[in-house]
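ok so for the tutorial part 2 we go from a plain amino acid sequence to predicted structure tokens. step 1 is just haveing the sequence, like this:
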Amino acid sequence: MVDTIVRLMAEVVSASGVKLDEPMSKHTSFHVGGKADLLVEPNTVPQLIAVIRILQQTGLPYTLLGNGSNVLVGDKGIRGVVVQITSRMAEYKSEENTIEAAAGIHLAKLANVAFQNELSGLEFASGIPGSLGGAIYMNAGAYGGEMKNVIEEVIYLDEAGKVHRIPGSDCAFGYRTSRFAGSGDVILGCKLRLTEGKKEDIKALMDDYNGRRTAKQPLHQPSAGSTFKRPEGYFAGKLIEDAGLRGFRIGGAAVSEKHCGFVVNEDHATAADVCAVIRHVQETVEEKFGVRLETEVKFVGEF
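step 2 — the prediction. this is what the tokens look like for a chain of 303 residues:
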């Protein structure tokens, strides 16, 4: 069965996009994680659709990943097939005030496309290290901007293998969530509606946001971005700092010295190390302040 699936996948995406027993530490921003039984990386939207339809027809379990920037993969890896939608799948077209793009395009590249076309509204995303598909899935946001504010339509493949286009207003966007979270649907791309702007103003705003991000966040260390969601009425990083956990470490994982809202891979951390730090932070903050921190990072695979 494995040989058959590998052959089918290689026929669709080419042999270079199919990897057996692939370490997921190579495919996540945390640089942590065991092996995937089989990793498939489509190059185009039609290839992605073909891959998913094959998996749906065979009934094989599969896991969808974007750029791997908001996930922690377990040390025991991921069983079945991982379909990773990466920058290989980054087609886009710009027309008037809209940009239609495939799910694999990086947000930074998409923000630059908007800038080059003198379109404003995506500046907030210029430093977010994820893919468009992942950003839609979790309604990514920063500095007061969110994906829901610029998405006109989302294109997705349902569990029956049918392609749909729906308006952004039907996507149930919320704080770090959408209708796609846990749905089984596969986001293929979206159409963004932006506003006309001046290049110098767009660039100035992007530079400002990226400057603030560089100054405050531990971008030099592997992580999955903000580890915890913002609890209502509080800031996660401030609660963690006030709990005396700046720099707290277990194994190779630690609370960032630069920004306490980040758990970082400081020295060859395992997923178990990261989980242990997260649990300790949650328990300590709840004990001291009565606030239970929820994780923003997604846990994938076997721990």
